[in-house]
Amino acid sequence: MKVEDVSYLSRVLTVLAFAAAMGYLEAAVVVYLRALYYPEGFSFPLKLIPSEIAVIEIVREAATIVILLAVAMLAGKRFWERFGYFLILFGVWDIFYYVWLKVALGWPASMFDNDILFLIPLPWIGPVIAPVLISILMTTIGISLTRRLHCGLEFRPPVLSWMLGSAATILILYSFFDFSGAVSKQAAPDDYKYPILVIGLILYGISYVVAVLESGRKKKNLTQSSQSR
Question: pLDDT tens digits, residue range 89-123?
Fold first, then answer.
């Protein structure tokens, strides 16, 4: 194995370890919150928590994203490399968050149990399987992207990739947003929109494949152009 490959593998493993540890910290906070507000076990409808605690929780979530971004900035040197590491960090962090909750609380009992996923800019609610599937895709694309860049290959997403990725993001956010008032009105959440999730995941995958294919085509054209000179 080349020295460069060892360096890349070491960096990826370090990023994975950090993300798994961050997942534990996230799960630990939720264990404390549930001990305080759901001693009988977490379920919907949600209980209202004091506004000052809600503000602290929102800022904590924002701080977590900043931490993941900072580590991605340190792990990569270029924009797309850093983006790839952020995808790995976020995906593994989210997956291990549920792994540690299962270890600590035996929850979720099912991958289809509803959870409150995020609070920024609106409450996100959905079954556990939804963020896990998204995180698996993020991790897979992140590893593929960083490996591709490590090998010296190009990555230049065309306009079509940006359009597909933007559409996927809008659809998936829509599927999570709490339109039923499950948080503010302490109501039961709406049935989750699985078809929208599936379409969003497919669009994300197509967006990345199109970007890879187009980047390879551009690289080939540039090589042929330079050789013809």
Answer: 999 999 999 999 999 999 999 999 999 999 888 88
User: CA geometry: angle at 149 spanning 12 and 146, to 5°?
Assistant: 30
Q: Annotate 42-100 with DSSP letters as a single string.
A: --SSPPP--HHHHHHHHHHHHHHHHHHHHHHHHH-SSHHHHHHHHHHHHHHHHHHHHHH
Which residue from 105, 106, 69 is spatially nearest to 88, judged by alpha carbons? 69
Instruction: Please say whether the beta carbons of 85 and 8 come within 8 A.
Output: no
**Cα radius of gyration rounded to whole Å, the chain:** 20
Query: What is the pTM for the complete model shown?
Result: 0.90
Q: Contact 105/31 with Cβ under 8 angstroms?
A: yes
Residue 91 CA to residue 215 CA, distance in Å, equals 24
| Tens-digit pLDDT profile for residues 154-196 | 899 999 999 999 999 999 999 998 776 777 777 788 889 999 9
Burial of 199 (0-12, 13-18, 19+ CB in 10 A): middle
Number of Cβ atoms within 10 Å of the Cβ of 10: 10
